[in-house]
Amino acid sequence: QKKRRAATARRQHLKSAMLQLAVTEIEKEAAAKEAEKQNYLAEHCPPLSLPGSMQELQELCKKLHAKIESVDEERYDTEVKLQKTNKELEDLSQKLFDLRGKFKRPPLRRVRMSADAMLRALLGSKHKVCMDLRANLKQVKKEDTEKEKDLRDVGDWRKNIEEKSGMEGRKKMFEAGE
């Protein structure tokens, strides 16, 4: 048990030492970021000196407005470049994924859709041809077979049942049997 206590105490000591080192590193990084920010602001944004006359203030506003426009243009250009590179990355990763060939096919669901609806979904407004597949089918006349003729000659089955029902029908069946 002494060994366990010593091991846990040592573990706790190491954890606390690591946490202290991490805290000092984070503080150093924050100080470095703040110093970098101050250097950047000192370099790119000189201290503002407000002139006394109205004309000089208007000129200063015009200069600041021109700087803002140029910065906005740069920001827009970089955003467009970023979007293009992201799109290229997605395309390349999709190509790489396809080349590997080890992708899982999603489970497909059955959808009842006519040929017209399918073409409309695929082609959009370009679809003008009506594909009624049943309209192009040939009409085939049914040939009368002997069995069907016999069935037609027998007549309606309900009439036969009615004739055989009751005592008279049974008498006819009995006489037919002899």
Structure description:
This protein is an all-alpha fold and 178 residues long. It is built from 6 helices and no strands. The longest helix is centred in the middle third of the chain and has 47 residues. The protein is elongated, with a radius of gyration of 46 Å. The termini are far apart. The mean pLDDT is 79. Troponin I is the inhibitory subunit of troponin, the thin filament regulatory complex which confers calcium-sensitivity to striated muscle actomyosin ATPase activity. One of its GO terms (biological process) is cardiac muscle contraction. Keywords: Acetylation, Actin-binding, Coiled coil, Muscle protein. One of its GO terms (molecular function) is actin binding. This is Troponin I, fast skeletal muscle.
Number of strands: 0
Largest sheet: none
What's the average pLDDT? 79
Helix count, DSSP H or I runs of 4 or more residues: 6
Indicate the percent of residues in helices: over 70%
Q: Provide the succession of SSEs.
A: HHHHHH
Shape: elongated
- The SS-based structural class is mainly alpha
Strand content: under 5%
Radius of gyration: 46 Å
Task: Set out the fold topology.
Layout: H1 2-44, H2 54-100, H3 115-123, H4 146-154, H5 157-164, H6 166-177
Key phrases:
6 helices, coiled coil, Troponin_I, Troponin_sf, about 180 residues, single chain, elongated, muscle protein, about 0% strand, Troponin, mainly alpha
